[in-house]
Amino acid sequence: MNNKKTSRSKHIDFIVLDLICVEVSFLLAYMIRLGNASQKFSDGYALINGLIIIAHAAIVFYTEGYSGILRRGYWREIKSVITYNIELLAVVLAILFFSKQSADYSRIVMGLFFVINTILMYIVRTLRKNHLCKINIKTGKLNRMLLLTDYEHADGFIKGLQTYNYSSFYVEGIVILDKDMQGDRISDIPVVANAVNMYDYVKAHVIDEVFIGSGDEGLGKITDKFLSMGVMVHISVNRIIPRVPNPTLENINDYTVVTTSISFMSFKQKVIKRLIDIIVSIPGIIATGILFIILGPIIYHQSPGPIFFKQERVGKNGRTFKIYKFRSMYMDAEERKKDLMKQNKMQGLMFKMDDDPRITPIGKFIRKTSLDEFPQFINIFKGDMSLVGTRPPTVDEYMQYDAHHKSRLAIKPGLTGLWQVSGRSDITDFEEVVRLDNEYIKNFSIAYDFKIILKTVGVVFKHKGSV
Q1: Closest Cα to residue 232, out of 263, 199, 254?
Q2: Distance between CA 108 and CA 112 in Å, rounded?
Q3: Residues 96, 97, 98, 104, CA torsion sign
Q4: What mean pLDDT comes out for the span 233-261?
């Protein structure tokens, strides 16, 4: 049942497109046999149309017709479409037969519907798959995967992982565990690291997933190490694995793997979280515009320069983006930071000090009231950030991270988070920040997000932890 749910969640676009094909095909069949484009369905055929929609929903829910749809070739897709339409027609005709209404409707309409829908659905599915393939190639937004294997099996794994054009990932590089082949290429994929320096490579590069194909020694240690860095790990099922968090069985092209990650979000949770981000960010952007009119002249008067502060930050799994804030510091703040490092009250890879002289008078107010954060609703709307997550580090901070620190970047950064509502001014140990961030990641739920949002409102109104 879990596999069926996963298939439906992954391929909601195909489900909707098939429903559109069904409606168009039935309308065309009706017009060809009984009417024209200006005539509406009669009451009887409107009933059949409703039955067809219900039958479509039943087929989607009770069958696995969408499982592996992106991996099918042209011939398999034809068979799948024909099977779907036979099932659809059988359900509708069975209902009409047992309700003793089948004689009241044209068999030619139903036959035309079957033929038209089979052809149209096959064409639309094929076009959609080709479109997805082109988008994946053009945008480069596929997940970046690192393959860990021994030399003997490397070529076979590469071929298996590159079998299909519609994958959600591409192989960024190879780690050969039993040889030092760094700098070589296998099947035109670069060997980027060896068993010794592979963790340094992942720390320094954007890697979303690691596929462990072979290698007999230290599998548990390797898995734990990558998990501590917040990277998703795929392990072939023929490997003996230790107890791992959030294990799920899934297919990576030709291979069945057990996937483990400290962060796990179902498709439904991802959709809900993104919808909340969009819904909340729109009024947040409007409020930002109003605040710009009010605060902009004051910010400029106290320190001539840009009203907005833009800075490169590090987001999910090492991706960089520009974060936006209302500028609360003087223009030379970054240069003066080096002279103030001795007064940093944070233990670790963050900077915070009391009575920071770089902050303007209006800056102290907007920081205390958290008004400086409002432009980040732009980041949330764009998808760089989420409403709730972990705070994104600067590039300088990120470059000093130890491997386990990267785990806090396993999800999108957020405007607020567990650390912020746990007394951020009182926390001076960066390791405690990492612990709180990991606690949120491992225990994520939509309800947990709402709880943090409510706590954030309380923290802001009490001006607690905002400086």
Answers
A1: 263
A2: 6
A3: positive
A4: 73
Contacts of 425 (CB under 8 A, 6+ apart): 352, 464, 465, 466, 467
Closest CA to 395 of 307, 467, 325, 323: 323
Q: Which of 98, 113, 139 is the last residue of a domain?
A: 139
Give the range of the structural domain holding residue 214, as residue numbers without chain letter. Answer: 143-260
Is 467 part of any domain? Answer: no
SS3 content of the chain, % helix, strand, coil (to 5): 55, 15, 30
Q: Which two tokens stand for residue 115?
A: 């033929």
Residue 430 has pLDDT above 90, yes or no: no
List, for residues 282-338, the tens digit of each pLDDT value: 999 999 999 999 999 999 999 999 999 999 999 999 999 999 999 988 887 777 776
Q: Assess whether 414 and 304 both reside in one domain.
A: yes
Tokens at residue 465, please? 């932890």
**In this structure, are 50 and 65 located in the same domain?**
yes
- pTM equals 0.65
Spatial distance between the Cα atoms of 398 and 315, rounded to a whole number of angstroms = 10
**Contact present, 146 and 202 (Cβ < 8 Å):** yes
In sign, the C-alpha dihedral spanning 156, 159, 163, 165 is positive
Q: How far apart are CA 258 and CA 252, in angstroms?
A: 10
> What does the pLDDT read at residue 175?
94
Q: Give pLDDT tens digits for 2-30.
A: 444 445 556 788 889 999 999 999 888 88
Mean pLDDT of 140-158: 85
